[in-house]
Description:
Layout: H1 4-14, E1 19-22, H2 32-41, E2 45-48, H3 55-65, H4 74-77, H5 80-92, E3 96-98, E4 104-106
Parallel strand pairs: 1-2
Antiparallel strand pairs: 3-4
Helix pairs in contact: 1-5, 2-3
Amino acid sequence: QPDAAERLERSLFERNFEVLLLRPEPLSKSVLPDLLSALWAAGFVILYADEKVSEPERAALKAVAGDRFFEITKAESGAIDEIVRRALAIAETLRVRIGFDGKKEVD
C-alpha cells in the first residue's frame, strides 16, 4: 500500500502538476541543495519525504522554496487521507496561470 507521500505524488500528477518525490536514502546530503535548486527552477513541486528531516535538509528546502516551503508532519495530520487533502490544498496555491495579457500569474 502506498504511503502518504506516494499517494500525494500520484494525486498531484493526476492534477497536472510536475511533481517529484524525493527520499533521503539514495541522495547525498552534499548534492541536495543543487538538486533541489535545479528541480525548483524547472518548475517541479518537490515532495521530500522522511521520517525525520534534519536541520541541514530543512534549510536546503527552505533556501530553494522560500515562502513556498510547507511542511506537513504525521503528528499534526494523522490519517493519510488528511495529509493528502491538506497538501493538495497547499499545492493549488502554487499553481501558475497565464492571464489574458499573456503574463504568468501565481495564484
